[in-house]
Amino acid sequence: MMSDVLLIQNTRIEGSGYLGDLLKNDGFKITSVNAKHEQLPEKDFSLVVILGAPESANDDLPYLQAQQHLIKNCVEKNIPVLGICLGSQLIAKTFGAKVYSGSQKEIGFYKDLKIYNNSPLFSNFKNPFTVFHWHGDTFDLPEGAVRLASSEHYLNQAFQYKSAVGLQFHLEVNEAMVNLWLDNTEEKLQKIPYIDPQKIRSDIDENISTVKSNMKNFYNNFKLSFNL
């Protein structure tokens, strides 16, 4: 049981990317579930990862409610949960915080993430550090949660509540994922005056290795913090 990981996908195109590679290379046994179409397994895992999707944590959808139930159960049993993007919003909502539209959408590579509270999860990171973003929503922190990172437009970019860690940003992306997300949304993005899909594409080469090295760092810090 100690090396079983549950990966929850909430949309086909948001996979585990480089994070999945790191888990596989370390020999973790991975169970992947497409939450929209498959039941969540009943058994306990040593780690649960909840990936992103365009839906909102406020959407009244049974499969999102099932994940909130799972998050609550995991934290009660002290099982680590890593929530990315929508996953982080679901963690916030599960423990009573509000999820709502942010002041502006963040899509693309951003270099303004500042580490808060000296979290060991971000040790060996540059400060500020670089991430890939794709979100318009944000959240308040649950009571008792610790803020781990923030940025110019968003106070809460990463947080920890007991054994659950939420990242509003994507460290798990690889080149193919960024290109795929852009391919799927190019027309929509062109309607947002401050976002330039062509610029995001041309930013990939310069930034993707930094984001991946941040992913690897975070992954190693996370394993240490939770004895995985």
Supply Rg. Answer: 16 Å
Q: Which strands sit side by side, in order, in the main sheet? A: 2-1-3-4-9-8-7-5-6
How many strands in all? 9
| Distinct helical segment count | 5
The name of the CATH superfamily reads Class I glutamine amidotransferase (GATase) domain
List low-confidence stretches: none
Q: Level of helix content? A: 25-40%
Q: Roughly how many Å apart are the termini? A: 11 Å
CATH-defined topology: Rossmann fold
Please describe the biggest sheet, giving its number of strands, its sense, and whether it closes into a barrel. 9 strands, mixed
User: How many domain modules?
Assistant: 1
Order of helices and strands: EHEEHEHEEEEEHH
User: Which class best fits the helix and strand makeup?
Assistant: alpha/beta
* Tertiary shape: globular
Describe the protein.
It is a single chain. A nine-stranded mixed beta sheet has the order 2-1-3-4-9-8-7-5-6. It is globular and about 45 Å long. With 228 residues, the chain is α/β, with parallel strands linked by helices. Helix 4 packs across helix 5. The termini are close together. The chain contains five helices and nine strands; from the N terminus they run E-H-E-E-H-E-H-E-E-E-E-E-H-H. Helix content is 34%, strand content 27%.
Outline the fold blueprint.
Elements: E1 4-9, H1 17-25, E2 29-34, E3 47-50, H2 62-76, E4 81-84, H3 86-94, E5 99-115, E6 129-139, E7 146-150, E8 158-161, E9 164-167, H4 175-190, H5 197-225
Parallel strand pairs: 1-2, 1-3, 3-4, 4-9
Antiparallel strand pairs: 5-6, 5-7, 7-8, 8-9
Helix pairs in contact: 2-3, 4-5
